[in-house]
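quick one: adenosine-5'-diphosphate bound model?
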Amino acid sequence: MTRVLSVASECFPLVKTGGLADVVGALPAALATHDVDMHTLVPGYPAVMHAIGHDAPIRATLTDIFGGTARIRSGQVDGHPLLVLEAPHLYDRPGNPYHNTNGSDWGDNASRFAALSWVAALIGTHGLDGWSPQVLHLHDWQTGFAPVYLRQMGGASRVGTLFTIHNIAFQGVVGGQELFWLRLRGEDFTMDGFEYYGHISSLKAGLVFSDRISTVSPTYAQELMRPEFGRGMQGVLHQRRDVFTGILNGIDTDAWQPPYTDPADKASHKAALRKEVGLPEADGPLCVVISRFSEQKGMDLLLQALPTLLRHGGQIAILGNGDRALEAAFRRAARHSSVSVHIGYDEPRARRYLAGADVILVPSRFEPCGLTQLYGLRFGTLPLVALTGGLADTIVHANAAGLRAGISTGFQFNPIDSEALCGMLSHMCDQFSRPAIWRRMQLNAMSQSVSWQASSAEYAAIYSEIAAAK
Ligand code: ADP
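yep, here:
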């Protein structure tokens, strides 16, 4: 049995802004069958405190946690042990984990998450009520200082660390003058430490000082060691390539269960979806998008490619929110009778879109793993994706060889530009007009393994290697 403390700024279903939360929420159950005893540590945002109850058992009281007193309370998430860092001076605020209700980052984000990392290192070093982790599994920049603090506290000789990159685009960079306020030591403020062009990078701290590093797909791991994708961290990752690996995310296949077993039964869901979003009956493929609106997600490419899809008789229902300019542009696009746009974040709606659609589009410029294409596979809603990151690792492209062998599960376009996207939309529409091929692809897609089964075994193996090395 390996004892692991998983530390993150989000955890589904308590608090979620993206795929990170899904992964952190899924790991404890996925790992339980692999002899891993996992506790999860998250900040006590209002939603989390509400979920565990303000009278949840107190496991420790800590004075002087970055400007105030904090408590560690215990709770449960889906029946698994949860530790909550209740620090009202840092987390008892409206808005989402990272910014206020106007969408601006909290000015003290560096110390808010340094506090989480500090407490993770404290638990690593001293244990909690007789439970002491052998491994800290740290997720993204918010936890990057934990291995540094663990060394400072003297815990690093007994407790190992795995740092997982869910998205390199977020790096937690703050000015060098924050060094002492963040309780970091000057000797690590170097190029070989967490210094990044005169600033402090908590992501780099995690990459440099953790025992092992992972990211969420094998292709993204390779991409991150190249300048086009590494966002300045390619050198560090290349240096640490012997301890750096890519492990694909899975999905909770119980939670993402299609309301049919035969894809032919999608017909009634398609009719219902058309009705819900106000699209007329049509012969072409009904596509959906379920996404944050950001440059990463390639929504601008999609806007440019829409006329091509519509010319081929396709329809599209878009569900998403984010960038205000993109929201406005999609609203304008929705004037077309074959385009529906719903601005918002709505999970039940996302499920109805998946059940009713023929195709899910994921035109991301980069995609560490991506979850929506996995939901698409599960629902027989064929993914049309950019050839990058986890999108490259999870889809078998419908090229001539794939179709002839009857193994294709979706469509991949490359290079990642609007021209290639248009080309692939045309190819997809061609295949859609061949029902036998389409059905074969749907059945292939639905029979892919998208659960956590294989990946959780890989995490369990890394944890036990880390623990054994201490
Ligand atoms: P990222 O974490 O970069 O946003 P992922 O594909 O890894 O991308 O995860 C996105 C998660 O958020 C998925 O679970 C997806 O279904 C969900 N999601 C994104 N936008 C919406 C939305 N507008 N409504 C409902 N769910 C959404």
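The first strand starts at residue 2 and ends at 7.
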